[in-house]
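2024-03-11 09:14:02 DEBUG pipeline.ingest accepted 1 chain
2024-03-11 09:14:02 DEBUG pipeline.ingest length=206
2024-03-11 09:14:03 DEBUG pipeline.predict start
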Amino acid sequence: MSKEDIIFFADSDPQTPCQHCVELDHAGYTVKCCPLDSLTSTINGTLQGIVVLNLGSNIQAGLDAQQQLITDGLTWPVIFIADCDQIPEAVKAMKAGAMDFHVTSVSPEKLLRSVQEAMLQLDSEKDLQLRRTRIEQRCARLTRREKEIMEYVANGVTNLDTAQQLDLSMRTIEVHRSRMMEKMGASCLADLTRMVDLCRCCSNHH
C-alpha cells in the first residue's frame, strides 16, 4: 500500500473546515481539498488517485460528480460522506461503483480503513496495468501471422481447424504456434489464454 497516491477531498461546503480532511492529512496521505464543483478541474492531469466526496445533505451533487468522473473515464475509488444514510441514494452510489458510503459522523478509524482499502485497490490496478504492459511488449514482437494464430489458439481453435481456415499446412501452423508461445513466454495454453484475456479485459475498461 502506498501513500503516494493523492486523495481528492471534494467538499460541498468548502468554507467550513472539515475534520475528516485534517485526519487524513495527519495520517500521512497527500490530500487535495477542493470545492465539489471544482473536482474535475482539480483532478485534471492526475494519473491516479482516490476521491472522497463530503456532501453534507447534498447527496445528489455527489451522485452527479460521480457520474462526471465516469463520463471522464476515471474509474477511481470513490468514498461518499453524507449527513444521513439515505438508502436509495447510497444504493445508487454503490451501483455506480462507489467504494463506501459513510455518514458524516463516521469515526476516523472507519474512514481510514476505507481509504486504506481504496489504496490497496489502486495498487492492485497498478499491478494489473504493469502485467498488461509486459504482455503488450511481448505481443509487439510477434509477426502478423503469429498474432493471427494467437487469437485462434486463445479461442480454443485446434491446429487442424486453424490450418484449414488460414489455408496453411499443419506444419506451418505448428511452427508459428511454437514461436508465438516462446515469444509470449507462455508455457501452456492456459497461460496464453490468461494473457489474452487480461489484455481484452483492460481494453474494455479504457
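2024-03-11 09:14:41 DEBUG pipeline.report The first strand starts at residue 6 and ends at 11.
2024-03-11 09:14:41 DEBUG pipeline.predict end
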